[in-house]
Specification:
With 417 residues, the protein is α+β, with helices and mostly antiparallel strands. The chain is built from 17 helices and 16 strands. The chain has a 5-stranded mixed beta sheet with strand order 4-3-5-15-8. Strands 9, 12, 13, 14 and 16 form a 5-stranded mixed beta sheet that branches. The protein starts with a helix and ends with a helix.
Length: 417
């Protein structure tokens, strides 16, 4: 039936005539809706790709006059391709975007379609606080799917093997490294952005000051020196692998007893391990005294959906956006893979279907249990992060002192504000 509907739709707006040779009757005229094609783009794992494609098929069954062309990939390269497409006005009608894109590509609020103007999107499913994340210059450029935060994940089996308690403090990690390093195991690990934010958390706890205050850089050169020195200490004492040697595959191999990763990456990083019986837990946010209050830790929208400012089909794009964010069909398929949904209707669906469980849900609960600071998009700027770790390497390889590297770094980072 679905194939037959598509064939009819592809004929466009055609009058189908039926006459009878046996009777002198007027022709019967049936009008078919013209089919519209729109594009959808996203990044994610194979699991995310599968359920999103399945959702698109359900959407097309519900709206047979709308054909959705899908474009998807892993995160690597997605932003660069999307940036080129946005510059050439060839981006997807509906696209998954990162929170930082709002500042990078829509500072004046005109980089994306104003979702307030989409008549087919049920905006009432979201609170004003949630929608605030997507507003630039009074334009609602995007809507967050769920919230996200860097989270501490621990392979409890490894810690148990060494008779070590789950780490809560920085000192706990250094103590664990002393015990584990003889076997080449690191107590903690993380990719560049994760470790960057981890170091910010430590420095904010030590200094009692935020890296950003009132959208202005609040750290000074000496604060960045603190971060550089602490990173070097973590590497030198085998608490974490140096970033150049970090490989997420080593988590499953047991080389890393812990990892810093986003809530939204929990299943991607640890799902298979948990299925294999490995005891992965969400640990407390690392602090100086182990109080788990989350000082220095940040939260942000996990991912967001936006609509192209160049879309020629805002009505159809609005229908697709609403289906992806609010429909029970998508909610059942997606579950908490991207975190606990912020859409009221989507959340009711997964609650009704008893889907609030698993490592992703536990990480979301950990995040919601603490008053984390809203992450400024500038702190996710990849160039800024690269500048920081380049300064760290200058110190590690004795090309510069931490004081000199921090002074030069401070001048560079100040340019981002």
């Amino acid at each position: 039936m679905r194939v037959f509907s598509r064939i009819l739709a592809l004929t466009g707006s055609i009058a189908l005539l039926s006459t009878s040779a046996c009777a002198n009757r007027e022709p019967i005229v049936t009008q078919q809706e013209k089919q519209v094609e729109i594009n959808l783009s996203w990044w994610g794992t194979d699991a995310r790709n599968r359920y999103t494609i399945q959702a698109v098929e359900l959407f097309e069954e519900k709206y047979p006059n709308i054909k959705v062309n899908c474009s998807y990939s892993e995160w690597s390269g997605y932003e660069e391709r999307s940036k080129i497409q946005m510059r050439s006005n060839t981006e997807a009608d509906v696209m998954q975007i990162n929170f930082s894109w709002l500042s990078q590509y829509s500072e004046n609020g005109e980089g994306y379609y104003d979702i307030n103007d989409l008549k087919n999107f049920k905006i009432a499913n979201f609170s004003d606080d949630v929608l605030e994340y997507g507003i630039k210059n009074d334009h609602l450029n995007a809507v967050p799917i769920a919230m996200n935060a860097e989270t501490v994940y621990i392979n409890q089996d490894i810690y148990n093997r060494y008779n070590l308690d789950t780490p809560k403090t920085w000192d706990d990690l250094f103590h664990s490294a002393e015990v584990m390093k003889k076997d080449g195991i690191y107590p903690m690990s993380g990719a560049s952005k994760s470790i960057w934010l981890y170091l910010i958390a430590h420095t904010e706890q030590v200094t009692g000051k935020k890296i950003i205050e009132k959208n202005k850089l609040n750290f000074k050169a000496e604060d960045f020196q603190n971060m550089i020195d602490f990173y070097k200490e973590l590497v030198d004492k085998s608490v974490i692998p140096q970033l150049e040697h970090y490989d997420s595959k080593e988590i499953a191999k047991g080389t890393y007893a812990g990892a810093i990763a986003w809530v939204s990456d929990a299943t991607n990083y640890f799902g298979t391990m948990i299925e294999d019986g490995v005891n992965i837990i969400t640990a407390d946010y690392t602090t100086i005294d182990g109080n788990n209050a989350g000082e220095g830790w940040y939260a942000k929208p996990a991912t967001m959906y936006a609509v192209s400012k160049n879309t020629e089909h805002p009505d159809e794009a609005g229908l697709l956006l609403d289906f992806l964010m609010n429909s029970p069909e998508m909610a059942e398929l997606q579950g908490v893979e991207k975190g606990i949904p912020l859409s009221n209707s989507a959340k009711k669906t997964i609650e009704k279907n008893y889907m609030l469980y698993g490592i992703q849900y536990e990480a979301s609960q950990k995040m919601e249990g603490c008053q984390l600071t809203e992450l400024s998009p500038v702190l996710e700027n990849n160039d800024l992060i690269d500048d920081f770790f380049s300064a760290c390497n200058d110190v590690i390889y004795d090309k510069s002192t931490s004081a000199d590297s921090a002074k030069a770094l401070y001048i560079k980072i100040a340019e981002y504000f």
